[in-house]
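[SOLVED] Predicted holo structure with zinc ion

Edit: marking solved, answer below. Original request kept for reference. I posted the sequence and ligand SMILES and asked for the 3D complex as structure tokens.
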Amino acid sequence: MTGAAHPNWRGGGLKNGYRIRSLGATAYIYEHRAVMEKHLGRKLRRCEIVHHKNGDKLDNRIENLELMSVSAHTKLHSPQPTSEQRHRGPRK
Ligand SMILES: [Zn+2]
């Protein structure tokens, strides 16, 4: 189920597995970002990511959300290299 095809679509819905709020015909905001912005009392920057602590993208309770930088977030989600992968680096 995606976007407008979602049965509960009423100006909101799902995008990339995240809940979104519609801001117009084509504009939308991710709900978890909106929740974090409200919590912080300011707009998020582009470089700021709102991470779902329990991995449930639909769980937008503030206690499940964590603000982090893009680089920290990427690191968090990238699996730790196995010993096999570590050996695959360029040979000297
Ligand atoms: Zn995340």
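OP edit: The CA atoms of residues 23 and 92 lie 54 Å apart. Thanks to everyone who chimed in.
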